[in-house]
Amino acid sequence: MTRRRHQPGAYTSVELLLVMALSAVVIGGAVMSYGTLVRSQPSPTTTVAVPLGQQRMQNFYGSTSSTQNVAMAPQYGALSQAEELREQFVADTLVATAVYCLPRQDINKWRPSVIAYNPALHDELDTPQKFLAHIVANAGAPAGLYDDHRNPGAGTLAANASIFLLGYSKYAGYLKVNAIYDIDVIRFAAANEPNGIYASVKRYADSPAAVNPATLTYVGGYEVFFPPSVPNPVRATDWAQDDFTPLFVSFERSARLALRESSTFERFKRAAERPFYFIWWPDPAARHLGPIANTLPRTDPRQAYNHMAGRTSLMFTVPMFPAL
Questions:
Q1: What does the alpha-carbon distance between residue 31 and residue 26 come to, in Å, rounded to a whole number?
Q2: Interatomic CA distance for residues 314 and 82, integer angstroms
Q3: Which residues of 240-278 are buried (b: 16+ CB within 10 A; e: fewer)?
Q4: What is the sign, positive or negative, of the torsion defined by CA atoms of 250, 251, 253, 255?
Q5: Is 7 inside a domain boundary?
Q6: Is residue 71 part of a domain?
Q7: 24 belongs to a structural domain
Q8: What is the pLDDT of residues 245-282, one digit of tens each?
Q9: What's the Cα-to-Cα distance from 89 to each of 75, 83, 281, rounded to whole Å?
Q10: Could you give the residue ranges of the DSSP H alpha helices within 95-232?
Q11: For residue 169, how far is the Cα from the chain centroid?
């Protein structure tokens, strides 16, 4: 009588049953974990009708309506749009000859494709302040639209900003504006309004069909509505410290320390060679824009922006003159 030998590489019924049982446990645990994760995420259809008003709606969306349905934070659909815009901003920066960040209190009403400039007649535009003075005096920018403001600590911080990215120009006597990024942060706190903060970043550039210089048109962006950091606030003062400032800080060349000024400006003269910015965009993945503790002394430049690190992942370090 011969015995049946076990074939090498084969499995017994007991081994197969054991593997199937372990697989069922692992797959079941994964399904339960995924279900819990999905249920814990905010609904992508949660929106709020934001009363932006007809003037803002016309400026932002070219619409005659007075309200805009905006996704409530945290919103991961808007986050994907923000990531796409981030990549575009980096690409725009890499080919820019100059970047000028201008703070503003109201909506941006001026988005030119070219800016008149004659190097034989006009000053060197080596700071955002000189750029602002030039566009008001020579290019038709409305006076008072942008704030003449160097850095946090010297007056009221603007809630909004426009970032001008200039490039090489083929038009004699003109600077070319490759793109403008408008950042708008608007608080709504009235009793008849949805309480929270509307935030958006929009990119404006030449239309693909444009042949001659014209006004830049909207070509992409994202928006999100942040609820108050205090759930169900009774008064507007309950979440009065919710904000998103500064939108940027600029670091001047350390050589400018030779020009003695107040500590408000001196603390930002840290650039070894070229001036640069730190820029922050609102993060759709954040749950709110509540305050974050900042205990650094005012003599430290980080005191002006240290709190921004904890409220957004959309942060940029941008040279003022990338092409140099």
A1: 9
A2: 8
A3: eebbbbbbbbbbbbeebeeeeeeebbbbbbebeeebbbb
A4: positive
A5: no
A6: yes
A7: no
A8: 999 999 999 998 888 888 888 889 999 989 999 999 99
A9: 21, 10, 11
A10: 128-138
A11: 27
What letter represents residue 188's amino acid? Answer: F
pLDDT tens digits, 140-183 = 999 999 998 888 765 578 899 999 999 999 999 999 999 999 99
Determine, yes or no, domain membership for 22. Answer: no
Pick from 60, 133, 122: nearest CA to 100:
133
- Structural domain total, the chain: 1
- Number of residues that make up the chain: 324
Q: Domain range spanning residue 58?
A: 47-319
Whose structure tokens read 């593997």? 19
Output DSSP code: residue 204: E
Place of tokens 């693909």: 208
* Coil/strand/helix, residue 282: coil
Q: What is the pTM of this model?
A: 0.84
